Fold:
Amino acid sequence: MIKSLNAYFQKNEVAAWVLLLPSMFCLAIFLFIPLIMSFGLAFFDINIFLKDAKFVLFDNFIELMNDERFWNALGNTVYFTLMVVPVGVIFSLIVALLVSGNTLFNKLVRVVYYLPVICSMTAIGIMWAVLLDPAIGMFAYWLRVLGFKNVQLLKDPDLAMPLVAVMTIWKSFGQNMIIFVAGIQSIPNDFYDASMIDGASRWKQFFYITLPSLVPVLGFCTITSTIGSFMVFDQTYVMTRGGPMFRTETLVQYVYTRGFIVSPFRLGYASAAAFMLFIVIAAITMLMYQFFMKKEAKGL
Amino acid sequence: MKSLSRRKTTGNIIYLLFMVILLAAVVYPFLWLFLSSLKFETDIVQYPPKLWPSQFTSSQYVTVWDRLPLFTMFKNTLLFSSAVTVSNCLLCAMGGYAFARMNFRGKKTIFVIILFTMMIPFQIIMIPLYILEHFTGILDTYWGLILPRLTWPFAIYLLRSFFVSLPKNLEEAARIDGANEYRIFWQIMLPLCKSALLSVGIMTFTNNWNDLVYPLLLTNSVRMRTLSAGLAMFIGQRIIEYGPTLAASMISLIPLLIAFVFLQKYFVQGIAFSGLKG
Structure:
């Protein structure tokens, strides 16, 4: 009996590894090795031709500290995130609250709001770049009709990033909305019934039932949105190419430009910048995670 | 009582107004894109701009077909996304199943590592990956596009959550009948998660179809470009012709929009699930 049980567990363990091996193998080669390499590369002076690599210790990082374009890109990325994440998450939540009931109309509306999410940022970016074009775009025309003069939109250094942010929220609010709707629908109805008997108003229901129940979902949406925003690239690459006057150049774009577009294609230096980005994201994710864990424990 | 019902109607009116405005804001750009792709260039650049074309034409689609290797781009995108989707569904289901329903040493540690890798965006490892592909000689090939995406930690995580939720006695009956672990997985468990697999597959397919940085970095010849990367390069040449650009954007959107019409439930399901389990 003992022997056969033992044999069974061994078989089970072997079977587990057989099932696991292909995916673990791929992850090891295409995720772990690059990840470890990315830490190492930042300490080398190496270009895209991958010849004459030189170990330079912290030189890349020291140079980054004095690199105005790096700080500019970091600033732009943070600015973008500060616009997209709070506004985007709160807006998605509001919309989700409005359409969470399973009426036919709401179901249809949810599908429509999800439409931009499945589209490629490249195509959507091109579409909005033309719509927001100061010369031929619809929006410039409408603004002029409304009496605005000197409408520059995407060509305006101060307006470009906020416009990219608004467009990003337009494209992606449907995603968080769907997650919130699922979250709202999973709150047991008894909670609301009980509070009705106690005579709670709808605002009270929202702040004492809905919102506390949504803390984990809220945390998930905020953290994933933040990571996504720090990685922003497609929108600015397609719509503005980092302009005007580098005001929409983001960190990923800077890494890409430094490593692959501008001679001498300094991969080591670009890696150092990417490494900094990783540190920033890791720190922010940890902080947010702890914040939401505490909120969840305390029940907001 | 009367004031309450009046408040309710005002609330309803505000709700409806908000919905109508938001619906218009979401639909209008798509409508404009579609109609503009059917305009002549003079119609597109006219001022003041008009939504409705003064004359319909398919010439922009013909032009972009000549100007861009659209067929090749389409083929590349389809091949890349499909291959990655199939392999993701299979490998991640196997991995997720092992984590969910089997015991082995180091399971917890490995799973924590998977959770950690889920948080690492591609952009962080793009330079080393480029170097890796350069040295293995798969840069700018289908292999170079497909191999790094064979598995997706997030899919492993999602499918694990699904397998965990299945009742235990399912496999016990099969085990008594003498089925081995692989048969239990393949013939009993896998068929049960068809809809979860469909969701994961759709997510993988959409993500890869739409991806920009990844194919931009790992391909550099015209014959390997995907739709997203090719389009981005096309507008990067700065000789702006609006008509063909808009037509090409439309073409890149159409396949997913059609898929969405038929499979919207599965598009949404995976996303919703990820938030609740996350």
Chain A has a mean pLDDT of 88. Chain A touches chain B through 87 residues (CB under 8 Å). The two ends of chain A are 53 Å apart (CA to CA).
